[in-house]
Amino acid sequence: ARGPCWARHLAQRLWSGQKYYLQIDSHMRFIQDWDAILIAQLKLCPSPKPVLSTYPAGYERGEETPSVGPPTVLAATEFGKEGMLRIAGRIVRSKPDSPQPGLFWAAGFSFSSSGVLKDVPYDPSLKFLFFGEEMTMLARMWTKGYDIYTPTTSVAFHLWSRDYRHTFSSDVKDRYQLHLRSLHRARFILGSHVDTTAESDQGEAREGHDETLHSQRPLHLNCCALLSLLSQRNAGADDAAEAKSDPSRGAAVGELYGLGTE
User: Fold this and answer.
1) What angle do CA 163, 106, 156 make, to 5 degrees?
2) How far apart are CA 69 and CA 154, in angstroms?
3) Which is it for the CA torsion 214, 219, 225, 231, positive or negative?
4) Which of 60, 74, 200, 260 could lock 104 by a disulfide, CB 3.0 to 4.6 Å apart?
5) Cβ atoms < 10 Å from Cβ of 81
C-alpha cells in the first residue's frame, strides 16, 4: 500500500485502448445507463479537452441505491496546515441544462477521453499524497489544455462514511517519510516553496516539475479564477454535508457557474 496516487498509477497501466476513461474511488454505486449519460454530457462541453468531475452525492450502507441525485459542484473551503487547498462538494440548487465550467477537479469521480492518460498520467512518485493529489493533477491538466466541467446530474453515489472499515495506512511503517517527500514534490509542481533541508527531496521535486507542468496554458490564469472563487465562495449552492445550513450566503458562485439560487 502506497496511497491513492500510486494505486491510480497502477490502475492506469491497465488501459488497453478504450476511448473513454472513468476514474472513481471505491465504495461506489451507479444508476442505470450511467455510461451513456456521461458520454452524452461530455459531448455537450464546449471544449476540445473536457473532463467531467465532481464529488458524488452519498448513499448509506444497508439502503437501496438512490435512483436520482442532486447535481453537485466543487468549491473551495480552506487551506490545510500543510498548505494544500481543501475543496468540498456543494449541492446545486437549480439544475443546469448543460455541464457548467468548474474550477476544481475530484480524483474520486472523473470522466473524459482516454487521451488524458497519455497527456497527464499519474506521477508514481507521489506516494501517500492525499491532500495535494487533486491540486497537482488539476494544475497539470489545465496547463495541458484540459477544462473541467460539472455534470448536470449524479450518476454515481459514494459511501462517505469510513467508520466501519480499517484504514490501510496505519499498517505502513515508512508512511511519514514517503508522504513528506511527496508533499515536497507536490509543492514544487504547484510553484510554492519547498520547505526542506534534504537536498535529495529538492532535486526530485525540481526534476518532476519540468516533467509534469506544460506550457499550453499558463497556470496563473486558472489561479486568478480560483482566487475569485475563494473570496466569494458561499453562494448558489449548499455544502453537501450541510445542505440545510444558512441560506443567506452570497451569490458569487451561482453567478460564476450560471446557476440559480432557488
Assistant:
1) 70
2) 5
3) positive
4) 74
5) 6
In tens digits, what is the pLDDT along the chain, a chain of 262 residues? 788 888 899 999 999 999 999 999 888 889 899 999 999 999 999 999 999 999 988 877 878 877 777 788 899 899 888 888 898 988 888 888 899 999 899 999 999 999 999 999 998 888 888 898 999 999 999 989 999 999 998 898 888 777 766 666 556 677 788 888 888 888 888 876 544 434 444 444 444 434 456 666 666 655 555 544 444 443 344 443 333 333 222 233 333 343 333 3
Residue with cell 450511467: 34
18: phi then psi, degrees, rounded to nearest 5: -65, 150
In terms of Cα–Cα distance, which of 122, 125, 106, 120 is closest to 2? Answer: 125
